[in-house]
Amino acid sequence: MTDLQSRPTPAPATDDPGTAHVVRRKRPKRMVRRTARHVVMILASIVMIYPLLWMVVSSLRPNDEIFRNPGLFPISFDFSNYARGWESLAQPFSHYLINSTLLVVGCVIGNLVACSLTAYAFARLKFWGRNIAFAIMLMTLMLPIHVVIVPQYIMFSQTGWVNTMLPLILPKFLATDAFFVFLMVQFIRGIPRELDEAARIDGCGHFRIFFQVILPLMLPALATTTIFTFMWMWNDFFGSLIYLTTPDNFTVPLALKSFLDTQGSSDWGAMFAMSVVSLIPLFLVFLFGQRFLIKGFATTGIK
């Protein structure tokens, strides 16, 4: 009779020589794939960030060297580009930064107020034609601005608002940015209706429910709207070019274009230097608001 108790216990799977050999074979392949993935991502990042790095480096080069050297290592440094760019236009460059700031602040306030109220109406109120109005609003997302720019310009020209910032700011108070309305509608639909019903039992009307219950919970969506409105309006060149005709009213994009001269020589170094300066507000806004931006998209299902 065989003594079962004296039979040796089978070794664990990890101690099996065959399994250990397979693990040792897979480990280098996994490291190679991981290394290759990181190399591809680093190369792609360099390709994507190269224009920005080239612009920063070119802001420190003399004009005659900018387009002769496509590399990122300048032969000589010329810090006077920043001083010359700041003072070479009709107004100091701070004047155009202030104009852009006023424009962006007005547009941000308009979008936050109008889009949040419109989104609450679409998400919570029941009225005749709500679904049709919402579908029409969504269709305007596919409408290019070039289709409506001519009737808009005629309308604002007849009201005497051309060469002011009103044609750029006023439409924001009418919830014309359908993307932000849709974003907030999706966010409000994710808020439980039981909160509304509890507030209604306490005697709250729609305005108190909106301002005291819904609006405090909409912080990620409001932050996302603020960041995108800031970025789009700070970089808006077409709208400013259409409506702002006097150099004193120019915003940053129009001021940067003023460095280019189609008849004579363009001051490329000063233009690149002021382009770097104009990127600083965008960088700071994105740096401090990116967590709200990601949270806003994640909670509205727009990924």
UniProtKB/TrEMBL annotation:
Q: Where in the cell is it found?
A: Cell membrane
Q: Which Pfam families match?
A: BPD_transp_1
According to the record, the residues making up region (Disordered) are 1-27
What's the source species for this entry? Answer: Brachybacterium fresconis
PANTHER family registered for this protein in UniProt: ABC TRANSPORTER PERMEASE PROTEIN MG189-RELATED-RELATED, ABC TRANSPORTER PERMEASE PROTEIN YESQ-RELATED
**Primary localisation category:** membrane
Q: In its UniProt entry, what is this protein called?
A: Multiple sugar transport system permease protein
Q: How does it sit in the membrane?
A: Multi-pass membrane protein
Residue intervals passing through the bilayer: 35-57, 96-120, 132-156, 168-188, 209-234, 268-288
Belongs to which family?
A: Belongs to the binding-protein-dependent transport system permease family.
Question: Quick check: keyword RNA-binding in the entry?
Answer: no
Q: Which PROSITE patterns match?
A: ABC_TM1
* Keywords carried by this UniProt record: Cell membrane, Membrane, Sugar transport, Transmembrane, Transmembrane helix, Transport
Keyword Glycoprotein annotated: no
Which stretches make up the ABC transmembrane type-1 domain?
A: 97-289
Q: Which InterPro entries does the protein's record reference?
A: MetI-like (IPR000515), MetI-like_sf (IPR035906)
